[in-house]
Structures are given as C-alpha cells and as structure tokens.
Amino acid sequence: MKGDSCCTPTRGPRDGAAPRGAAKEIHALRRIRAGTLEGMRPIPGGEFLMGSADADAWIADGEGPVRAIVLQPFHIDACCVTNGQFNDFVNATAYKTEAERFGWSFVFQLFLDAEQIARVTQRVVGSEWWCRVDGATWRHPEGPGSNIKKRWEHPVVHVSWHDAAAYAAWAGKRLPTEAEWECAARGGLVQKRFAWGDELTPGGRHLCNIWQGVFPTENTAEDGHVGTAPSRSFRPNGYGLYNVAGNVWEWCRDWFSPDFHVAGPRVDPEGPPEGSRKVVRGGSYLCHHSYCNRYRVSARIGNTPDSSTGNTGFRCVRDA
C-alpha cells in the first residue's frame, strides 16, 4: 500500500484483486440533460482560466500552465453526496461498494482507539498514519462499532471512483470533468488561490475544514471539525457550492496526467483517453500547509479508481 504525498492512500495490486461485480468504468462522456435539478446550481458556459502558477504548487501535480478553457453550461450539486443520499441509492439498488467487497478500507489513525490500533496489520509506507481497517465502509467509517447515525448530512466516504460513477448513473447524473469541477469551484473568481479569494483565513475566519495544529498528532479543530463536517458547512462560494475546499476530496471523471493538458484540448476538455489514476480535487480535513496545501482551488492529485478512504467523496453534474 502506498500514498500520494500524505493525502489519499492507494489500493495497490498486492492489496487484493478487484472484487467481482464492480461497476464498469465509463470511457465515453455522455451528455445528460434529463432528470432532477434539485439541490444543484447552474454554472454558466463560456471561458475561464484554469490552472495556476502558484509558487508553492507541487510540480509533479501538473497544475500549470494557466490556460483559457471554454465549457458548455452545466449544473452541479451544491454539496457533496451525503450519507443519507447514498443510503437511498443502496436501498434502491442493493449496491455493494468496493470497500465492502474488498472487506476493508483506509482509516486515519487518529480515529482509531487503542484496541483497533492493536489490530492494525498494515499501514501505508511513508504515510503510516493511514491504516488498513477491516470492516471499514461508508456505513462504518472508522470500522466495526462505528456508524453514521449522527452523520446523515455529512458527505459519504469510503467510496471508490467506481462507486461514485454508479451512484451518479442511478441519480441520472454523471461525475464532473476536472475542468467543470475547477470552473464551478472557482465560483466566478479569476485566478484566486481559494474559492473565496487569496487569503486562507480572511479576518481570522475559517472558511473550510482542514487540519489545524501539528500534523499528524494534534488537530486543534479551530474550524470546528476534526473529521468530516456536514455538507452545508461554511459559507458557499460565488456559485452557491459548499465545501469545495477541504472536508473531503472529490472524484472527477478524468484520468489523471501531470502533463496531458499542457497541449490538450481547450474546449470541453475530458483529460487523457486512458490512465491508471482518476483525478480527485479539493483537498480534505487532513490537509495542512506544512505538508499538503492542496485545498487551493487549482490543486489536483490522482488515485486508482478502486481506492477508498475516510476522506474522499464526490458530487455530481448534469448538462444544461
């Protein structure tokens, strides 16, 4: 098992074969213009500036160059898909997530008690705070004995890219392309570091759920949250979207590449035609400026489409 920096650990080939019956990947983008728009926000079409030249960006992530991208108008969920919404999907379809099929998922050590830690048999090399926990699923985020009874409005976690795509198809939607996600997350602002401007805490106010304190041993929770926050926490961005910075990473449709976009398409780009990792965006409650400032609006990483963690979720889009 390995990690991408310290952000999202990857389920590798030695961690078990893909479970039989997993959802198929969607290769050709299919425009979806029917279905409910409840809980969604309209994003105008046109041109926006994607990427950044931030001096503190991770070079290997390929955030640059800054480029003009043209998109068709679309709608996007105001919030990440919640545990309550995912529960409706599971009740309607009897769907089993990949974490359930594999029998385990990645949990951050801070959320495990001494008895659970004593049972941990595998940790992520280089990011030992990530633990393999048998029985950790979207219903049991910290493993057996934990539940979501008080977290119905929190974003669902321990869902893979395949799980997210399956939910989106059931809901009559799809996952956003990376360009759509960044355009929506910017909220109409031009080349700002964050979804609200250039200052992380303007006037001393916390506007997102990220790590405060000393990582990985102490989270002072100055923003009010140690783990996930409810999906409608903090003020929304200019387009009415909540928590596009921090809280949970969000799966996008595209394959990840550090350089495909350098000379790639500029009109409705979809990323490379193939790859081994899918794009995730937005950062999570574990991000901290000392090691991972990927809560910036242009930041990006990738993870294998069968991986699941306690800090990754998703939101959906629908074409206008």
Account of the 3D structure:
- This protein has helices at residues 83-93, 98-102, 114-119, 161-170, 178-186, and strands spanning 2-4, 8-10, 40-43, 46-50, 67-71, 74-77, 104-108, 123-124, 127-134, 213-214, 218-219, 249-255, 278-281, 300-303, 312-313, 317-319.
- With 320 residues, it is an alpha+beta fold.
- The protein has one domain: paralog of FGE (formylglycine-generating enzyme).
- The strands form 6 sheets. A 4-stranded mixed beta sheet has the order 14-13-12-15. The protein has a 3-stranded antiparallel beta sheet with strand order 3-6-16, covered by helices on one side. The chain has a 3-stranded antiparallel beta sheet with strand order 7-9-8.
- A hairpin with a 3-residue loop joins strand 1 and strand 2.
Per-chain topology:
Layout: E1 2-4, E2 8-10, E3 40-43, E4 46-50, E5 67-71, E6 74-77, H1 83-93, H2 98-102, E7 104-108, H3 114-119, E8 123-124, E9 127-134, H4 161-170, H5 178-186, E10 213-214, E11 218-219, E12 249-255, E13 278-281, E14 300-303, E15 312-313, E16 317-319
Parallel strand pairs: 12-15
Antiparallel strand pairs: 1-2, 3-6, 4-5, 6-16, 7-9, 8-9, 10-11, 12-13, 13-14
